[in-house]
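Think of the structure tokens as a kind of shorthand, similar to the way a musician reads notation: each symbol stands for something richer, in this case the local conformation of the backbone. In the example below we present two proteins back to back. Begin with the first one, reading the sequence and then the tokens, and try to describe in your own words what changes along the chain.
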Amino acid sequence: MSAKPKTLQQAIKHYANPDNCLNFIVSRRWPDGVVTCPTCGRDDVRFISTRRMWECKGDHARKQFSCKVGTIFEDSALPLDKWIIAIWMIANCKNGVSSYEIGRALGVTQKSAWFMLHRIRLAMQNRSFLKLGGPDGEVEVDETFVGGAARFMHADKHKRRITETGTKDKTAVMGILERGGEVRAAVVGNRKKHALQTNIRAHVKAGSAIYTDALMSYQGLKQQGFEHQVIDHAERYVDGQVHTNGLENFWSLFKRQLKGTYISVEPFHLFRYLDEQVFRYNFRKLAHDGLRFEHVASHIIGKRLTYAEVTGKVGATCSLPN
């Protein structure tokens, strides 16, 4: 068996072989090596080599199935080699990769590439139940606003989106970073005390040292069991260990991704792009690109995003993981 690819060039060569694509996805779809029917769960299935599909012996309508069933690839007519390279690119391009670039690289339409990328972002989501911090842990909490600068907007878009000055027409995003650990971030409805502190209690262990800016919404965290310290950005940005520079760095990366690569992101889809950047930030220290790719590929199971959902015809969730 050939070595696992570590670079994009190696991945393109390796997964140009349809059998390598199939074997890789099967190893993720059925990790124990036993292929089971997604409809009835039977394992006495027959492999059809000419079509690279399986046929179930059960008594039900959908007897034949592929390795795409039950994954983000379900109902996609695109071959696995295109999907695999798309996953590799979005998992490893530091500032993201646009649907136009994916479309040109893979020979698909921009619309198909856009839908592919949103489905891959679903596999990049991390919904951990473990809380950050602890008695010896240090956690930074900060929020920012995301929205286009009015001076760069077309007149029609400016009229539709900008109704007041300030932050009213921007979207609030909250981040929680454990120093030396991972970051969690999500779109929030507002910066009021209830919204921010509810998320802090849900994701940070009591007793943790929490560092925030001087926003009034953070007042009262000490009474809830946190070691809360504030840095007033009107006076300074660092006071010993008290700062939010780690999260400021993450916001810089996130906004560079939006402004430099994706250009125009609707608020409805913002949480998907946030999940993408959170993934790359949390796995930035892996030894090589192949490991990031494999991590995404290991989370394609049981996650399906339909075109109706991604276009807003069906509701989608955008809250912090609970």
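Once you have a description of the first chain, move to the second and do the same.
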Amino acid sequence: MSIQSDRWITRMAKEHGMIEPFESSQVREGVISYGVSSYGYDMRVAPEFKIFTNVLSSIVDPKNFDPKSFVEFEGPVCIVPPNSFALARSVEYFRIPRNVVTITVGKSTYARCGIITNTTPLPAKIYANEGIAQVLFFKGEEEPEVSYKDKKGKYQGQQGVTLPRM
């Protein structure tokens, strides 16, 4: 299994619609960068957020997630409260080939602010339509017998901000 380069990412995006919309170069001026990079793609966060609020003293339970624990927000900047988190979606839609697995890592700009899964004890700003994370593409030597799509993964083809599902 090997990591794929900017050439492969660009070819797959242009010829197979792997990433839409696709930015063929790194956009950096005045924004947290996004677009294709040497060995990955820096995706943007859309201006739609679900911000966790613990007003109800909820327990975060992946088997029984209470949607009332979230406040919906749309806007150019999302303020994530201290020791909390927000769910969001990417601007880009990804169509991952059957023989490829991706790993998504946080952008170093946000990590330097203590925002990984927002471990900072301070309020944190997230800028919509700017880079939020880098997607790395690893191509397998052969196709898997059963893919995520074959299993009808519960997050397959999701649209919008999606809460945990059972």
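Compare your description with these statements about the second chain. The helical segments are 6-16, 108-111.
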